[in-house]
Amino acid sequence: MSHIDDMPKQRDTPGLDELADLTSAVSADTSAGTGRPSAPRPWRGRRRVLATLLTLLAAVGATVVLLVLPSGSTAAPVPTTAPLPPPPPAPATAPAGVVVKVDAPDPYVYVGRSRDYFYSAGFGYDISPHVQVIPFHDLRNLASDGPPSDAMPQLPAWSSGWIWSVDVSRSGGMYVMWFTSQANDVYMPNGVLAKCIGEAIASSPLGPFVPQPEPAICQQWGSLDPQTFTDSNGSRWLIWKADLNSDNLAHIPTTIWSQRLSSDGQTLVGSPTQIAVASQPWENKLIEAPQLVEHDGHYYLFFSGNASNNPASGIGAADCAGPRGPCIDSRTAPLISTNSQGPGPGEESTFTDGGALWMIYSPNAIFGTYIYRLVAVARIGFGASGPYIGQFAGAVPGH
């Protein structure tokens, strides 16, 4: 994926401020016993300092990107995380490398500067926390980092009181959350209240996120499952599902849509475009939870197929021409289906951390006794045929 510092699901550049301080410190001497800085060293001395710094960074395994600046300027090297090698395929019977025993529907991870943040939906109408958030260092020990706080303590006025399917991205010093909620005054053609997509802003990943007074997207049969995507050219997009399965009589295949966002990620620009439609038999005319990613110039749309209360639910992938689509759903089977870790996996989201692409999802559908929504984490690899589920190979998200 092509996310950088202020984009979603991508680790912010670590240590940049510290490196800048180090470079500034070593570019000027301190006279012995006076505490006063001496005259700046000539470039030859600075080159030696920079070479030493690069050697130290290489020793700890950092990839270094040098900024080329005009004559007379100085800058610290920018360390980035090198991509991990492709993992071996994971067994289909146990695709997730980690299954966390917490009750957390619609899981989502935002990768921050020094901590990662785990979000999940609330548990019902007007039940606090409305949006659960937990800062964590290791997803395997997520339960020990709790209890969760409420990232949106004040519900939007248009909401009926239940928030789910959140997405968090960073723009400058602010954080933008897109979310789903059922409206309290917007009705579908069948007279049922529609699900709509809202937006909220905060100065911290922990919140409090302050929602906008009106929903941002509310199509005829409802809209849900927003995801932000940043293309390699820096353009920002919002991807979501049109909730056509709310028309229980017509049995219309659900569709996925995209629309350009402003450079700050806070405003929809232009018109929406349909990019995908449920087309494979295993999906039963229903795809949702879209997650668009880019890998080596190729675009892939991950999604959940079939109903989330059905053990036939699974997680699939389509090939896309770009954020405007079209996305071709040519795979006849899901990437992840019912297995020993749970029946009916789905509600996935993706994030980049430590040089790898990860998928976090619910390993079990909501049906029968499977009300408790666990959290599963899988590694995504890419081969000649596109994405596949890979083994963890010793890497674990978090820092």
Strand-helix topology:
Elements (H helix, E strand, L loop, with lengths): L15 H11 L16 H17 L3 E3 L12 E3 L17 E3 L7 E4 L4 E6 L9 E6 L12 E2 L8 E13 L2 E14 L5 E10 L7 E2 L11 E8 L5 E7 L12 E7 L6 E10 L9 E9 L2 E8 L8 E7 L6 E2 L17 E8 L2 E7 L12 E9 L2 E5 L9
What report would you give on this structure?
The structure is a single chain. With 399 residues, the protein is mostly beta strands. The protein has two domains: 65 residues, no CATH class; 293 residues, 5 Propeller (Tachylectin-2, Chain A). The protein is built from two helices and 23 strands. Strands 3, 20, 21, 22 and 23 form a five-stranded antiparallel sheet that branches. The chain has a four-stranded antiparallel sheet with strand order 4-5-6-7, with no helix packed on it. The longest helix has 17 residues. It is globular, with a radius of gyration of 23 Å. The N terminus is likely disordered.
Under the CATH scheme, which architecture of the largest domain would be assigned? 5 Propeller
Q: What is the total domain count?
A: 2
CATH level-4 homologous superfamily of the largest domain: Glycosyl hydrolase domain, family 43
Question: N- to C-terminal separation?
Answer: 19 Å
Q: How many beta strands in the DSSP annotation? A: 23
CATH class assignment of the largest domain: Mainly Beta
Considering the chains and any ligands shown, give keywords for the structure:
4-stranded antiparallel β-sheet, globular, mainly beta, Tachylectin-2, Chain A, 5-stranded antiparallel β-sheet, 399 residues, 7% helix, 2 helices, disordered N terminus
